[in-house]
Amino acid sequence: MSMESESWHKSYIPEGKSGNHPCPEAVYYAIATGALARAKSLAAATSDDASFERTKAVTTAMVFSALCLEAFINQEYFSRPETKKILRRKKRKKSFESKWFDLPHLLGNRTTFDKSAMPYKAFHELVSTRNRRLVHFKPHMEQRREEGGVPC
Predict the structure, then answer these.
(1) Which residue has the higher pLDDT, 147 or 71?
(2) Residues 50/42, Cβ–Cβ less than 8 Å
(3) For the residues 92-120, what does the mean pLDDT come to?
(4) Would you say the pTM of this structure is higher than 0.90?
């Protein structure tokens, strides 16, 4: 592989001081909203091709919405001195969901999200679906077409 092909992304994705994209959540958000608009535009279509395109658009919107939320919370979480202390003391990573649950406290609120109510329930369902069914897909966990499941 040539040096040119190894660094193609550098001309398309600007880097911040750390070598990472300075605002990945903005890129993920733009991808998610574009995919959602595409899914909405295909909502009334009935052909198999349009149905598959709609499924692709919805899947893209879900994955990139979760990526956007994860990038945002990581930036917020790791930009605060108090969270850095917590992470150093515990010597282990906090889950994506636990960071969101902790954020209101870090921002000075006395209460946090109610896990049994919206918007936390929608957030949990999005992350769970992204992880279990889209990113870390395990075929044996899905209902097969012949068993009445959704066809692939």
Answers:
(1) 71
(2) yes
(3) 87
(4) no
Phi, psi dihedral angles at 79 (to 5 degrees): -90, -5
The identity of residue 61, as a single letter, is A
SS (H, E, C) 15-43: CCCCCCCCCHHHHHHHHHHHHHHHHHHCC
Other residues' Cβ atoms within 10 Å of the Cβ of residue 146? 7
16/14 Cα distance (integer angstroms): 7
Residue type, position 120, single letter: Y
Three-class DSSP category at 58: helix
- Contact at 8 Å (CB) between 133 and 66? no
- Token pair of 85 as six digits: 């202390």
- Which one has a higher pLDDT value, 55 or 84? 55
Q: Which of the 8 DSSP states describes residue 79? A: T
User: 111: phi > 0 → left, psi -120 to 50 → alpha, else beta; which?
Assistant: beta
What's the pLDDT score for residue 90?
66
Q: What is the pLDDT of residue 3?
A: 46
Task: Give rounded-to-5 percent helix, strand, coil for the chain.
Answer: 65, 0, 35
Write out the DSSP string of 98-148: HHHHHHHHHTT-S----TTSTTHHHHHHHHHHIIIIIIS--GGGSPPGGGT
What mean pLDDT comes out for the span 22-37?
93
